[in-house]
């Protein structure tokens, strides 16, 4: 799949428009409370009422066995050896997510997926299906009419577009039957777990919490912050809400470039830089020069330090004689935008990035997926 250069250039422009601005995030967007988690549920059930689009029972014997077992529980006993041709029934797997603190009687959404050879679940009804957790205990029951998405008529009603029909959803089709006990914290403490490991961000969270509640937060490792919380449950909930609403500026992530070799997508963060190198690729030649820039305090200054920074320049040439100079070319984003502007394809970008990494000029982790 080839992505137009115009699209790549637009995406890079949006992602790199404000490279130096750090935005504050709420702690609740960066971390979660240890022990407050969702739980996955699964069940096996039958969908009935299909318009001849169900399982081919000759190829899916488990559908027939399920129907016979269900009828037996309802008091209908079929003679042995009965050959059932059930084109309106489909065997399905039902999945759902049980949120933390869900109480019996509350409704949850369920997803129904065909596990046989049914052509469509559209118009079907899921029969009562128990949903079990990892401990094989029933935590919810699901039943209802299935809604299959991706169906719509074109303008004027001349045609109908139908997408994937073997998966559907029932909004609020599951009813919680059993509560999963959730403990907020351990003893006098709660633990904040970051979504990703970062020692700098952990340290900033600790400083922010201690500025509001002195000596209450301690960093356990690069992912967990332990916070002393009130023992009373109502006060503890209020305490957690205040902690989650606090704003901090997360530390910059490590430099990384992600390349999708199947779609040609190239994604990078603002920490990616380039060092001195030279690359020849097809009709392109890229030369990256980096030199130190020394800044000294004035002759009459009483204080000051000598600061050494790096200034780089990128020179891009083509066989047609085109020349492009980037005075601040240490930013890989600027180089990629320049390459796409002169007609480099996504495959060219992949080859150039790999060459830069192999030469040691790309100061970032290169991940190819």
From TrEMBL:
Stretches of the chain forming a coiled coil according to its record: none
Q: Does GTP-binding count among this protein's keywords?
A: no
Does the entry feature the keyword Signal, yes or no?
Answer: yes
Subcellular localization is given as: Bacterial flagellum basal body
The family database entries (Pfam families) matched by this protein are listed as:
FlgI
Q: Which GO terms describe its cellular component?
A: bacterial-type flagellum basal body, distal rod, P ring; outer membrane-bounded periplasmic space
What family classification does the UniProt entry report for this protein? Belongs to the FlgI family.
The protein's assembly and partners? The basal body constitutes a major portion of the flagellar organelle and consists of four rings (L,P,S, and M) mounted on a central rod.
Give the function comment from the record.
Answer: Assembles around the rod to form the L-ring and probably protects the motor/basal body from shearing forces during rotation.
Query: Per its record, how is this protein called by name?
Result: Flagellar P-ring protein
Q: Which gene encodes it?
A: flgI
């Amino acid at each position: 799949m080839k992505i137009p250069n115009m699209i790549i250039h637009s995406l890079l422009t949006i992602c790199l428009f404000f490279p130096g601005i750090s935005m504050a995030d709420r702690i609740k967007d960066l971390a979660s409370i240890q022990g407050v988690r969702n739980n996955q549920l699964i069940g096996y059930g039958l969908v009935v009422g299909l318009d001849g689009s169900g399982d081919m029972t000759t190829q899916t014997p488990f559908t027939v066995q399920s129907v016979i077992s269900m009828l037996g529980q309802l008091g209908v006993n079929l003679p042995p050896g009965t050959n059932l041709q059930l084109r309106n029934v489909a065997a399905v797997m039902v999945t759902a997510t049980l949120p933390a603190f869900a109480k019996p009687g509350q409704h949850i959404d369920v997803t129904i997926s065909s596990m046989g050879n049914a052509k469509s679940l559209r118009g079907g009804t899921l029969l009562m299906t128990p949903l079990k957790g990892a401990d094989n205990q029933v935590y919810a029951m699901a039943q209802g009419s299935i809604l299959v998405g991706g169906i719509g008529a074109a303008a004027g009603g001349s045609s109908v577009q139908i997408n994937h029909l073997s998966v559907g959803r029932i909004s609020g089709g599951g009813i919680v039957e059993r509560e999963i006990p959730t403990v907020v914290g351990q003893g006098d403490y709660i633990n904040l777990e970051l979504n990703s490991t970062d020692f700098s961000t952990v340290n900033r969270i600790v400083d922010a919490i201690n500025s509001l509640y002195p000596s209450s937060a301690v960093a356990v490792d690069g992912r967990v912050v332990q916070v002393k919380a009130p023992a009373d449950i109502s006060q503890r909930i209020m305490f957690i809400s205040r902690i989650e609403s606090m704003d901090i500026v997360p530390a910059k992530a490590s430099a990384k470039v992600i390349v999708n070799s199947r779609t040609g997508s190239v994604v990078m963060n603002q920490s990616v830089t380039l060092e001195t190198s030279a690359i020849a690729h097809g009709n392109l030649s890229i030369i990256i020069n980096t030199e130190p820039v020394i800044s000294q305090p004035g002759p009459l200054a009483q204080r000051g330090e000598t600061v050494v920074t790096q200034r780089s320049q990128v020179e891009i040439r083509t066989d047609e004689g085109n020349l492009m100079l980037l005075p601040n070319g240490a930013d890989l984003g600027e180089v990629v935008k320049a390459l796409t502007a002169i007609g480099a394809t996504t495959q060219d970008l992949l080859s150039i990035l790999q060459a830069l990494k192999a030469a040691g000029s790309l100061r970032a982790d290169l991940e190819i997926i």
